[in-house]
Design a protein that fits this description.
This protein is mainly α. It has one domain (3-65, 76-171). It has nine helices and no strands. Helix 2 packs antiparallel against helix 3 (40-50). The longest helix has 25 residues, at 77-101. The chain is elongated, with a radius of gyration of 16 Å.
């Protein structure tokens, strides 16, 4: 499968990634609400454990919107998606380490981790939108950490960024032709 065809397949199957951004953005906002209602530690648990539900939630949303969420047989970019997710999981302990130094750094650190995780999606989806989202999230994380922002503000910024970019991804993939039969 050629690169352009593989990217088209990923865009088609996953609605340009908009479904994942939408689910993740709502999780960030929910974690911010937990921070305000219950406290920082509960919010950290909410974002971390809730993150496990992002892919299944995005897959369900894809299916509800008429896409399979499955890549075509032979699409080599499935490996890139798994590698990016693994990189993010391996970096999450750094956010907890940052929070151990200063609790307000948890969400900013997670913004940097998730932002870095999005950068390979520019290749995965063939969409420069992911450079913008990844850099915006990472930049916001650094700005919030060094700007002395409150604990919950990072969660709300993360949610706002993903919810801002999700419609752009949906629009970009709205008329995407199916590359090959999903397998």
């Amino acid at each position: 499968m050629a690169v352009a065809e593989a990217q088209r397949d990923v865009r088609y199957a996953h609605l340009g990634g908009g479904s994942g951004m939408l689910v993740s953005g709502l999780l960030w906002l929910g974690s911010g609400a937990v921070a305000l209602a219950l406290g920082p530690k509960e919010a950290m648990v909410a974002l971390t454990l809730g993150g496990v539900l992002i892919f299944p939630g995005a897959l369900l949303l894809c299916r509800l919107l008429g896409r399979s969420g499955l890549l075509a047989d032979g699409n080599p970019f499935g490996d890139l998606a798994r590698e990016s997710a693994l990189m993010m999981v391996l970096c999450i302990p750094l956010a907890f380490a940052a929070a151990a130094v200063r609790i307000e750094w948890y969400f900013p650190a997670m913004l940097v981790v998730v932002g870095a995780h999005y950068l390979p999606f520019a290749t995965l989806y063939g969409m420069r939108l992911y450079y913008a989202l990844g850099l915006a999230m990472a930049g916001a994380g650094f700005a919030l950490a060094f700007g002395g922002a409150s604990f919950a503000s990072g969660a709300f910024v993360g949610g706002a960024l993903e919810l801002l970019f999700a419609p752009l991804a949906f629009v970009a993939a709205r008329h995407e032709p199916q590359a090959a039969a999903a397998g």
